[in-house]
Amino acid sequence: MRRREFIAGVSAAVATLPVAAGAQQLAAPVIGFLSWADGPALAPAMAAFRRGLAEQGYVEGRNLTILFRWAEFRQDVLPGIIADLIGRGVALIVTSSGLAPALAA
Predict the structure, then answer these.
(1) What's the pLDDT at 84?
(2) CA distance 47 to 53
(3) DSSP assignments along 40-63, one per residue
(4) 36 is in which domain, residue-wise?
(5) In the chain, which end has fewer C-beta atoms inside a 10 angstrom radius, N or C?
(6) 10 Å Cβ neighbour count for 21?
(7) Residue 13: inside a domain, yes or no?
(8) Domain total for the chain?
């Protein structure tokens, strides 16, 4: 009888694994958005970026975090901004408005 009880117990435990695994939520991805320009100049581009993400099921504040950073046309601040984004554990860095941010990343 002990063998049957053991098999029944293991079967019950295995059956609950998908339910338990489904209960765990993955952390929302964090995207770093770095622009050479300043924020107000990119308002239309940022709106389009958010729309594109939403079309793929990613909504800022719900299942995605976006960290916006602006270099304001100052190349000297780019390494610090990149280091900050990396230190915050971003999954992706998106650059906009020129080659300098992409090269810094």
Answers:
(1) 96
(2) 10
(3) GGGHHHHHHHHHHHHHTT--BTTT
(4) 30-104
(5) N
(6) 8
(7) no
(8) 1
3-state secondary structure of 88: coil
Q: Is residue 5 part of a domain?
A: no
Task: Tell whether 74 is covered by a domain.
Answer: yes
pLDDT average per 10 residues of sequence, the chain (105 residues):
46 45 72 86 86 93 93 90 95 83 78
Torsion of CA 72, 75, 76, 79, to 10 degrees: 100
pTM of the predicted structure, to 2 decimals: 0.69
Residue 58: inside a domain, yes or no?
Answer: yes
Give the up-direction half-sphere exposure of residue 75: CA atoms within 13 A in the CB hemisphere.
Answer: 6
Give 94's strand partners: 33
Using CA atoms, how far apart are residues 1 and 65, in angstroms rounded to an integer? Answer: 54
Reduced to 3 states, what is the DSSP secondary structure of residue 7?
helix
